[in-house]
Amino acid sequence: MFKTVWKKMIGLGLVAMLSATALVGCSSETTTENKNSNKSEEKAAETTLDKIKERGKLVVGVKYDLNLFGLKNPQTGEVEGFDIDIAKGLAKKILGDENKIELKEVTSKTRIPMLNNGEIDAIIATMTITEERKKEVDFSDVYFMAGQSLLVKKDSNINGIADVNKKGVTVLTAKGSTSAQNIRAKAPEATVLEFENYAEAFTALKAGQGDALTTDNALLFGMAKQDPNFRVVDETFSEEPYGIAVRKGDKELLDVINEYLKEIKANGEYDKIYEKWIGEKPKQ
Known about the structure:
Elements: H1 2-45, H2 48-55, E1 58-62, E2 65-66, E3 70-72, E4 79-80, H3 82-95, E5 101-105, H4 111-116, E6 122-123, E7 137-146, E8 148-153, E9 170-174, H5 178-186, E10 191-195, H6 198-206, E11 212-216, H7 217-226, E12 230-232, E13 240-247, H8 251-267, H9 269-278
Parallel strand pairs: 1-5, 1-6, 9-10, 9-11
Antiparallel strand pairs: 2-3, 3-4, 7-13, 8-11, 8-12
């Protein structure tokens, strides 16, 4: 009987030891899982602003084909313009050096997808703030106010929107732009041709593929400056407030951008950039 009791005690002891080992193993696995979970949460909580500071570079989507705002200089290979100076100032605000920036080319069609898939941190590319776009991105305060107009040959009889709202008139513009939407709404009788970008549309206008090119007047002035055979009509038929776009919910970066815009407007830097590229002081 003593042997039987002893065997039972040994058996119970082994069961207890195995149970304890299993508990330790489970506890260890749980601790590892918790650590991994915490790391994932920390990674998810990292903001765009944190990432910019970690990499030491701001990546901005800009136009390469718009004189005065974002145009690649064929002689130097540098992209120059109003938007470029605004972007460099933002890099200086965030990283202390305007050269800590990468300028990636975007078009009206590609800029939102490139932002939302993480290729760029922000869009500074003559982007009009609209309710529809607010569903996909968050916008800064307005940094430039433009109005849509028409670019025509100097001897053209077109002087306003009424002159293109006719059958047989062809108006050129860029894909994915508010300009395309506006011209169809304002001149439903006209034929609208859309190109990949405004440089292609302007080339088509010079080749006689259309009667007018439409976009914001600030951009059209740049095209007319490139080729004196063209003029911008006086009439505008929309308001086009430009904003800097960031990903939805990117509040920390947006706050810094708005703070930066307030600062440069208060200290006179904005007026200098405006006058440098537009040729006059901004209207108050």
